[in-house]
Amino acid sequence: MQNRWPVIAATLVVSLLLLFGGFYAYQKIQIETPMQETLTEASHIKTYEVETSPNHITVHLTPDHGFSLSKDYIPLQKKLNKLAHGRDMSILIKHDAEGELLDAWNRINFGIQEGIALKQYTKIPQTVSEEAKAHHFDATVFMDKNFVYLELKKDDLHLYRVLPLNKQESGVKDNG
Amino acid sequence: MGKAIAIGATPALLLFLLYLGVSPLPLFAVVGIGIMGWWLFRARPGSPAFGQKKRTLKKDSVPNLSFENIGGQQRSKAELKEALDFLIHRNKLRDYGIRPIKGILLSGPPGTGKTLMAKAAAHYTDSVFVTTSGSEFVEMYVGVGAQRIRELFQEARTGAKKSNKNSAIIFIDEIDVIGGQREGSQHREYDQTLNQLLTEMDGITTDQEVQILVVAATNRKDMLDSALLRPGRFDRHISVDLPDKKARHMILGLHTENKPLAEDVEIEQIATETFGFSGAQLESLTNEAAIYAMREGNGVIQQMHLSQAIDKVMMGEKTDREATQEERERVAIHELGHAIVSEWVRPESVSQVSLAPRGQALGYVRHHPGQDQYLYTKKQIEGQIMICLAGAAAEEKVYGNRSTGAQNDYVQANRYTRTLIEAGLSDLGIIDMKLIGKDMLHHESTKILKTLYQETVQLLNQYATVFEKALDVLLKEELLSGEQFRMLLKRYAKDAVTISS
Asked: Keyword Metal-binding on this protein (chain B) (predicted)?
């Protein structure tokens, strides 16, 4: 056993290097680089950052004024999802230009959440347009199978929200 | 090497799995099931299964014990060394066309150092030492013994190759278990084991890379199968005997080397008093003496401790048996009888008379054995018989009856009588024991015992006062030293003690 210690130590170091080195290399080459390329090519994105962990990828985005959820976000999300190779992925859009739109969002949030919870989806655009009219900002709201997309714009300010339709069992719920 | 890599890689893999967030438990389970399956698959008879120890006690290295560390046994050592020289000078052997020695059989009473000799042999030849014992080949499965012999030889070979040695010594202790005479159909399994051993030993030649020498030890050489004993199997038979006085002195010296001895301790005397002790008993003696010294909180081992240890090794530890006053008196009378006759037969022979019960005995007389002696005259044996009978005779003299305490003495006396008759020293003359009827033997034996008993009683009659005086001391002190006893004897004996020739 005495003369085996160096072998054991060497094996430990080499194994650690191989396993972790290999994993980081794989992550860099197969995930991070393609994602960064995609994000560079995408329009209306000011800055981005990709954070990877063994089972989760987080993409931080700072969009410019022309960014549109329907035209830019959805195709980008589809592309990034493909590149994530099955890992969970979240895209965080930085809100550095929300200003008074945040108050508006707080007001319309009730209506939207109620609409989602009661599955009365027509209530959502109704609430949003009423609020937009009252406070003079542009609002776009649409939905697909899984999400409700909301986009508020006023002068230089913009606010983006993507709300899941099938929320976990929480929040407002119609038991009737 | 493979094991070391596995040991190194496993923690790395575990760390990586934990980092990935994968629980390693399922992996453990899979590996565990795999190992279990492997064991079960391998666990055919003969292979060590779960919880079983490996068959042989493998010694990777050469034992660190040389012939100098073995006390006495000069002749056996010289003989063994000579045999081992064949293993060392292999090239010379080839030049002379000498067939290498295949086996050495060490035989002798228990505790004489056969195992030590084998270890020293391995050290002397710088060989790998593999040891096993006969009983390790005994298993409930058939064929296991033979397989184990094969494995044993294989192990010796690989072991030697691994440690770059060109010879290996296989030591089989208690070989009589497997090497017993083959007869009838009772022990077919042992036969297979023995046959395998014989074939493996036949396969040993000088051409092989690793030369294997089988050293076997037994204390029942007469039981061994003749096929084992023939030349070409166990070529050399070396008897390891009980140590003589010189050897005992040396053994005691070796064992007391690491113990604090008082300056006045006379090892010479202890060696004299321990006639018939084996090496193991001598070792136990020094150990017990050290224990006594420690119990008493004495810094050094004194002569007294060694003396007590002799009693302990010979007779067993002191017992707490409570005897009544009557019994104690009777025992004292009995022992004094032994002591008086012993002193009459061989002056200065009584070393101690004790009333302290030890082992099975309620009291005892310890003798100075005198010189080591291997030949006895008729007179000497008769003297011994008288000593044996003296206990009972003393009881009869004092109480007018005898007790059961003398039973063991009679057994001994009968043994001596038998020796007398067998050796042709009785009135029957030189005889063949097989041709003599039991009645006749009994008659002769009784005649001898009766005559000697009468003589003993007469002898004791001269010492009536000694009995009284010595009894007082013995009952009070429980112990009467040889010198004290002789003084009483001189003072109170009716006649001067006659020294028998």
From this structure: yes
